[in-house]
Write a structure and sequence with these properties.
- It is a single chain.
- By secondary structure, this protein is mostly beta strands.
- The chain is about 0% helix and about 50% strand.
- The chain has no helices and 11 strands.
- It has strands spanning about 1-5, 10-15, 20-25, 35-40, 45-50, 60, 70-75, 80-85, 90-100, 110-115, 115-120.
- The strands form 2 sheets. Strands 2, 4, 5, 6, 9, 10 and 11 form a 7-stranded mixed beta sheet that branches. The chain has a 4-stranded antiparallel beta sheet with strand order 1-3-8-7, with no helix packed on it.
Length: about 120
């Protein structure tokens, strides 16, 4: 099993930045992909981006439009989501997740999830 703990989110004004981190522990050797998703009440969990654990190759949702960057520190079992130029529409609970096979965009294929952290962007 892989355990995921996300950093605290926060509240920022539109145009601001936040960085989330996600710490993995347990069977980290089984990680193929780490993903970031977000969810607002009444909506399905939305893909934000993912990163291949070994190569570091990242894929992003079109809606992010180059504003977000995912990176990872394999030695410390950490993955980061740097969010710039935040918009009110980015307000959501953000989740990190682990897939033991490469699926990336499909949240139903992920095996382990963090607890979620709230990000609020005010206009």
């Amino acid at each position: 099993q892989v355990f995921l703990v996300e950093s605290r989110g926060g509240s920022v004004q539109a145009g601001g930045s936040l960085r989330l981190s996600c710490a993995a522990s347990g069977r980290t050797f089984s990680i193929d992909t780490m993903g970031w998703f977000r969810q607002t009440p009444g909506k399905e969990r939305e893909f934000v981006g993912c990163v291949r654990w070994k190569s570091g190759t990242a894929v992003y949702a079109d809606s992010i439009e180059g504003r977000f960057t995912i990176s990872r520190d394999n030695a410390k079992n950490l993955v980061f989501l740097q969010m710039n130029s935040l918009e009110p529409e980015d307000t959501a609970v953000y989740y990190c997740a682990v897939a033991e096979k490469y699926y990336c965009r499909d949240f139903t294929k992920y095996d382990y999830w963090g607890q979620g952290t709230q990000v609020t962007v005010s206009s």
